[in-house]
């Protein structure tokens, strides 16, 4: 039976040995409520201070056509940030592996199945796209704006500290800044999650050295990708008070899946879909 009821990590497949399924089984999907991680940040469900999505790419998608011939694709999934649940990543991987020896009448029937199962698990509409493995849309691109990584700074702490976030002056600017030094850790297994982060805003100029120290502070922080991005968004809104803000992270794939959450003030949108070389 599918774990469509929001659950805790206690019974999640993450960090446990699991046999890979040989056939399709929607019951492998494991939902986790977002509320527990949002409450400590002062985020109230039903009154979210941001809009956004969790964008996933799956690079190990395969199924059998009606005649038993294997097909392969790269999938892009988008979960809305206001969905009540996120889907635990290992359960998602196991679920997708169940397609490998399952016959489908058409490519569209694969998409329809994914949309139905994932939307039910997330508690909101999930969009699904399938791409050929050599589709140009999957070509690596660069994050826009200026990179912070060459700033010559001293770093002494590796947990997030809002004290590093400050404005350097009250002049209102519009700029995009990014860093490839983002690293957090899985809250269950402790495995490292490597990523890049884009911050685009309009408001008082944010001190760049302090911002980079703050981002490096996630290096020993344990949390899901989605909640790290929400943490960054909430801290920047509280400390810098920008008029507009977008925070987007592109995490390196693990187990054939990459996750790229973004959160923004209403009206803001991320750049056109992009994938970085490390993904």
Automatic annotation (TrEMBL):
The active site is at 186 (thioimide intermediate), 193 (proton donor). Its EC number is 1.7.1.13. One of its GO terms (molecular function) is preQ1 synthase activity. Signal peptide: none annotated. Keywords: Cytoplasm, NADP, Oxidoreductase, Queuosine biosynthesis. It catalyses: 7-aminomethyl-7-carbaguanine + 2 NADP(+) = 7-cyano-7-carbaguanine + 2 NADPH + 3 H(+). It comes from the Bacteria. Pathway: tRNA modification; tRNA-queuosine biosynthesis. The keyword Oxidoreductase applies. Substrate binds at residues 87-89, 225-226. It is found in: Cytoplasm. Its main location: cytoplasm. Residues 20-130 form the NADPH-dependent 7-cyano-7-deazaguanine reductase N-terminal domain. NADPH binds at residues 89-90, 254-255. Belongs to the GTP cyclohydrolase I family. QueF type 2 subfamily. Catalyzes the NADPH-dependent reduction of 7-cyano-7-deazaguanine (preQ0) to 7-aminomethyl-7-deazaguanine (preQ1). HAMAP family: QueF_type2. Homodimer. This is NADPH-dependent 7-cyano-7-deazaguanine reductase.
């Amino acid at each position: 039976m599918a774990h469509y009821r929001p659950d805790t990590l206690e019974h999640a497949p993450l960090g446990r040995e699991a046999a890979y399924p040989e056939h399709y089984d929607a019951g492998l999907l494991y939902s986790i409520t977002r509320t527990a991680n949002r409450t400590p940040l002062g985020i109230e469900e039903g009154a979210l201070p941001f809009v956004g999505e969790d964008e996933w790419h799956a690079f190990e998608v395969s199924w059998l056509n009606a005649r038993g011939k294997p097909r392969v694709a790269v999938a892009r999934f988008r979960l809305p940030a206001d969905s009540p649940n996120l889907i635990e990543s290992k359960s998602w991987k196991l679920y997708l592996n169940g397609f490998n020896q399952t016959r489908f009448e058409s490519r569209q029937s694969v998409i329809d199945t994914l949309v139905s199962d994932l939307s039910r698990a997330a508690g909101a509409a999930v969009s699904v796209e399938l791409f050929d493995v050599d589709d140009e849309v999957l070509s690596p691109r660069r994050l826009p704006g200026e990179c912070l990584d060459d700033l010559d700074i001293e770093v002494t702490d590796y947990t997030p500290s809002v004290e590093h976030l400050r404005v350097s002056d009250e002049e209102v600017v519009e700029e995009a800044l990014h860093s490839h030094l983002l690293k957090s850790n899985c809250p269950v297994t402790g495995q490292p999650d490597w990523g890049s982060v884009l911050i685009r805003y309009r408001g008082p100029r944010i001190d760049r050295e302090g911002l980079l120290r703050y981002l490096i502070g996630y290096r020993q922080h344990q949390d899901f990708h989605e909640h790290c991005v929400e943490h960054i968004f909430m801290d920047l809104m509280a400390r810098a008070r920008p008029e507009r803000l977008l925070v987007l992270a592109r995490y390196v794939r693990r187990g054939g899946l990459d996750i790229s959450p973004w959160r923004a003030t209403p009206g803001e949108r991320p750049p056109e879909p992009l994938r970085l070389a490390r993904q």
